[in-house]
Amino acid sequence: MTESFILGTYTRSTSKGLYKAIFNPESGQFEKITAIAPLTNPTYVTQISDTRLVSVAQIGDQGGLVVLDEQADGSYKVVSQLGYTGHVPCFVSYDQERGYLLTANYHDGIFSVLSLSENGQLSLLNEAVHQGNGPHKNQDGPHVHYASINPHTTDNYVFVCDLGTDEVITYAIEDDSYDLKKVSTYNPKAGSGPRHLIFHSSLPIAYLLCELSSTVDVLRYHKDGSFERTQTVNLLPDDFTGESSGAAIRLDKSNRHLYASNRGHDSIVIFDTGKDGLSLKKIQTIHTEGKTPRDFNFDQSEQYILSGHQNETYLSLFSRDMESGLLTLLDHSIPVPECVCVLPLV
Questions:
Q1: Can you provide one Gene Ontology molecular function annotated for this UniProt record (predicted)?
Q2: 14 burial type by CB count under 10 A (0-12 exposed, 13-18 middle, 19+ buried)
């Protein structure tokens, strides 16, 4: 049985917007890759249901969201769109329980909460405009890069990473008023630039990828929405002297292996998480054979990892040993340009 990936891209060069790739895990081959929506800079996308997607995009002179529904013939139709910020958001996620869309806007330093109706209409409910900066040259102001829930708990919290202010802010959303209340703030080492956060599925642990320091912070997660750092690991080899930054972070379903990508060193790093989930040990660094692997993801079986490249015209495919977690490069010629989001459909 085949699987599908949705691929978000920049449209600065040859990309035609959003792509859909049909993958056969038995053969390890892609059977079909098609452009499904001619959007401008659809750089991040989330799945709402079996037939509905929401993508960030440029909408006129604003940034915003586009709702797309799959049609009977496999094509996608734009159901609605809403421009509400000065720049295209860099991240979107969906809170299935409450029906909220959560977006992060890097350039404007804004975290936004939107509603999505059953017929696909969007409404802006509230937003938090961040303030501040950091010591790194890329921290001239707030740069919100991630906003999502912990999918493994029922906590009424949203976690927002601000790369520009070195903060991971925990918000509570009031269900009636949609007011945003700051519950807790975690600060990594100054200049780290927190980018993405991922949670352990069975233990109160989170892993924070920091872009500017190319590190991962291992965090204990507390019921009050706060975090406590227990370990920091480096994503780069000790002898690496070039420029590089952290990009994407993924955890397998067993919680045994953590994966993170480097842009500049152009690699994926694999860690064993240890029996307690708190003791990361680097077990492999493998090059993606392409420039700027901004995002990557597992297929449904987790026997493969697909990596996109922001500054290439192709993707790279790896096989994954289910026991050791180690990767082997299979192909680096899968034709999708400027790819910055890899979303496996479930």
A1: 6-phosphogluconolactonase activity
A2: exposed
**Would you give the DSSP letter of residue 204?**
S
pLDDT of 176 above 90 = no
Amino acid at 177: S
Please give the model's pTM, rounded to 2 decimal places: 0.97
Contacts of 29-36 with CB under 8 Å at 24 or more apart are: 30/317, 30/334, 31/2, 33/334, 33/335, 33/336, 36/6, 36/68, 36/75, 36/76
- Domains in the chain, please, with CATH? 1-38+242-346 (2.130.10.10)
d(CA 123, CA 52): 17
Contact 134, 193 (CB under 8 A): yes
| Cα–Cα dist 61/39, whole Å | 13
Q: Which two tokens stand for residue 36?
A: 């499904």
Query: Is pLDDT at 130 greater than 90 in this prediction?
Result: yes
